[in-house]
Design a protein that fits this description.
mainly alpha
């Protein structure tokens, strides 16, 4: 009971800090998904040998190498790398800590989104492509009007799951005190010298967000499955 009482006191005193952390966490997640979806789609198309710029093999090799390197190294390492690298490589831009961390998050997520979109496109029956080409559509028209609309049903739930993963991964940004939930925990911990109580509150907030998103994704998948019948 004392534990719950202390939790209630911390919440009543510092709920604005938790709210700011929650807002920053959601903002980082949304920005990362939006940016990585655009660039991930471009990279996925580059990896397809039968579509436009994907026919340029050196470019395809660069994309493959990028995806493998990013997926084969931990995100915390990437956060440190971009946090220290970008200000040195681009000193004239005066980049903020938030920009450096967001760049790392977007670079990391883009590699995973690229694979999500590529897998979604490959899941579309190749007969659809052949039928479209037989009707006189070129590669771009086939991809835009035939393949992608069908691939969205496979891609959208996976993108939502990526958003859930990103929301949890933003906790690593607390290493650089960006202002998300775990940063607020460290701030409150420094003020109150309490660990478990504010940490539990942060855990509850994370759980509520991810649980709600997971339920939304389940509903979305059911509706998409029903629309195919």
């Amino acid at each position: 009971m004392q534990f719950l009482g202390i939790m209630a006191q911390i919440w009543s005193r510092y709920w604005t800090l938790f709210l700011k952390g929650f807002q920053m966490t959601i903002l980082m997640g949304l920005m990362t998904v939006a940016i990585s979806t655009v660039f991930g789609a471009l990279l996925a198309l580059m990896r397809r040998s039968n579509f436009g710029i994907g026919k340029f093999k050196p470019l395809r090799a660069i994309v493959v190498a990028y995806v493998e390197v990013i997926r084969g190294t931990p995100i915390l390492l990437q956060l440190y790398f971009f946090y220290f690298m970008l200000p040195q490589w681009l000193p004239f831009m005066n980049l903020s800590e938030f920009t450096c961390v967001m760049t790392a998050c977007c670079v990391n997520s883009t590699a995973y989104v690229c694979e999500i979109i590529r897998a979604g496109i490959q899941a579309v029956d190749y007969g659809q492509t052949e039928a479209a080409r037989s009707l006189g559509l070129n590669s771009r028209q086939t991809m835009t009007h035939v393949v992608l609309p069908q691939a969205v049903k496979n891609i959208l739930p996976a993108l939502c799951n990526e958003f859930v993963a990103i929301v949890k991964e933003t906790s690593l940004a607390s290493t650089f005190f960006i202002g998300e939930l775990m940063t607020q925990f460290r701030t409150i911990n420094g003020i109150t010298f309490r660990v478990l109580e504010p940490l539990t509150i942060v855990g509850i907030i994370y759980f509520i967000v991810t649980f709600t998103l997971s339920k939304f994704i389940a509903v979305l998948e059911r509706r998409m499955s029903a629309s195919e019948r």
